[in-house]
TrEMBL record:
InterPro entries recorded: AAA_GajA/Old/RecF-like (IPR041685), Bact_Antivir_Def_Nuclease (IPR051396), P-loop_NTPase (IPR027417)
Cross-referenced SUPFAM superfamilies: P-loop containing nucleoside triphosphate hydrolases
Residues annotated as domain Endonuclease GajA/Old nuclease/RecF-like AAA: 1-322
Protein source organism: Candidatus Ruthenibacterium merdavium
Pfam families linked to this entry: AAA_15
Keywords from the UniProt entry: Endonuclease, Hydrolase, Nuclease
Top-rank taxon, per record: Bacteria
KW Nuclease (keyword) present: yes
GO molecular-function term, one example from the UniProt record: endonuclease activity
Keyword Membrane on entry: no
Name of the protein: Retron Eco8 family effector endonuclease
Amino acid sequence: MPLTRLMIKNFKSIKHCDISLSELNVLIGENGTGKTNLLDAIDYFYRNLTNSDISLDVFDENNRFSNEVRIALTYDLSEFVKISKSNTEDSLDFNQEEPTEQSRYNGYYKEIISIASKSPNKKVCVELVQIKGRAIRWNYSYEERFIFKSLFPVFYIDTRNLDVTEWEHIWDILGDLAKVSNSERKNIAEKINGVLLDRSHETSKKLKIISDIFEKANVNVKPAMAKDFATLLAKTYFSGHNIQQKGRHLNYYSTGTNSVKYIELLLQSIDALSRIKMKEPLVLFDEPEISLHTSYLDELSEAIIGVNSKLSILVSTHSSRLTKNLITSSDRINLYNVKLIDKYSSIYRMKKFPLYSPTSKYRVADDHINAYFSKVNLFVEGETELELFSNPYLRILFPQLKRVDVFKAVSDKPVLNIMSPKLTNSQVPYICLIDVDKAISYDKNKKRFALKREYFPKNKNERFRYRNKHEHEPYLYFQRKRIDAMQNKLHVHYSLPFLSCSDPNYHAFISAVQQYLLAYNIFCLSTTIEGALINDVTMGFAFEFLKKRSQQDDFEKFNLYWDGLSKNKKINFLRILFNGKSDLLKSEKNLKSVDDNLKNILDKIGIGDKTSGWVSNYLDCFFQAVTQMGDSFSEKNFARYLEDESRKKKLLEVFEKNFFELYSLMEILCDIINKE
């Protein structure tokens, strides 16, 4: 790898950055976190490497007393040393070039060897230091920096400020690629002159007129530099310089079409330059996905991945599609998440899939990668939870939910592995919402609970830091010991047919499990998501909700059975009718010894499939009833209703009373967002 390490101090929003680089490096993160600042730091380094382009806008944006900027790039010269040593052998004739040119190259090679010899591993760190009011200081001489710039040229492509119909920059690269030696240039010029000055051609007469004009004006044309001469030569070869696509001018095509073609041609040109010339370029892309359709993103990904290993590429992106394509197609990638913490950019290196879940990458979808770009992630089990947190009235009441991305992942471990900030080290705050039966189970025959290994491993190893000496909350160890003891000794009494339980020790056990898991970002419901909606407070509302959805005859039979139940049994019965589970985690299909009358009631009155849409309808009806808005109830009117702070406060109190578990979860999510 040409560029192996990047260190930045006090540059704009970057207080400190010290990262290792691979051949392909991808920076992701929200807008305004500082991804572009990182690329700008490299660009600023290069703008001043052999020229003077000093700016006062590069200093720490948050601390006016900070007066020093440092940018250091570490280069690997090992490949160039091999080339230089082979080319300084006495037997090499340098393609029969003139002695003066051979001597110049020989000195160039020796200088590379000399620079590399200062480091045992042939890696050299070039550092820029700028102090306010002073000139930039370097740790290498101008001549040495000129060599670094030649060996490791930089190409910065900012697609936001790119004119994709003007491709002159590509001609510059091609000119560098086609650059010829002095002797070869002299030979080519003589042959061209021989053709053009042949008096049998009309062109010869015209060129003579032009020459006379210059001579009379007493001016002359300065010979082009080697790179410019090669560019002119290439344009002459193609009989022009206006690049077209399929015979049409670039203005004919869309910005996206031109953009992807420009980047492809640019990358291929830089790639060819690195293969033929003694160069290992650095390519910076700032949001190359702008204006690109999905199919073009795939094409762009292939272009980036297809370059040879002599290039170092840094890509800043907001595209989950581009990120997915790159991380699943290349093992030579470093993925960095850039976050803004206390007004400073923090760069975190994310873990690669093979490090923790080798098979996960085969399940990656665009939606999964969206979790890397989120402000806050909420991972849930299924469609019911997705429907719940998508409810527009809930999102109006809790506007912070607009900054929370909800993903269905908890029940699919490979998918959760892909998105989990704990595994990927993405540093995105998150909460996993689970039903209690994910953490514990109940054996009716033994009348005992069991802790599930996924959340309570028997070997006491991680998943959740059991007995970790670095744990900030040491009570967790004793909480786990308490849970283990309760699980071994707790025998609860239950009531048939729904396995309902009013034993206070049971509820104490559930509460202990919830507190323990919450310390590890797991919000465990006391039963299920349906149980969070159907509880002893909302029982009356849920009863009326069922009544409105049922046939009169069917509901009368249900009501007759209902009247004979205790309050605890009524709650459990309702939960089962709403596709939830009872206290001891039994669903309708798990109920045994159920008579025909009860079976018929369950079939006729049950809410239907989990995806029937009842959750949204249930919440809509609840908010409509509480606000007493009647037929005028709508999202717009609901939002206006909440503009009155006293009304909003009262509605929040009502919501907390009726859905206390959901309200607790909302408080946690809001606290996380407010801290961000």
